[in-house]
Predict the structure.
Amino acid sequence: HNMGQDGFQMKLYIFSFLIMTLASFQADELVSGVQFFFRTPGTMEEFETNVESSWSIQDKVLTLFFFSTFGIFGGSCACAITKRFGALTMSVTTTTRKAA
C-alpha cells in the first residue's frame, strides 16, 4: 500500500464519482440532470415555479468548479493534519471548526 494521502483522496473521489454516475444513469436521471444544469439558468425550484432565475449557467458552473476544488483541497489538508500531528489533533481541529 505505497500510496500518499493525495493519491488516496483522488482514488476515493474517482470511485465515488463513478458509483454516483452509475446510480444516476440507472435511475435514468443522468442525461436530464446534466442537460438541466448546463442549459437552464436558475435552480430547480425556480424553474418549476416559473420564477426569475437567480443563478446564471456560468455562475452554476463556476460554483461547482470552486466547490469541488476547495473540497479536494480541504480533504487533502485534513489528511495532512492527521498524518503530521495525529488523529487527536485532527478530531480537535474538526470539532473546533464545526463549533465556530
About this structure: The mean pLDDT is 89.
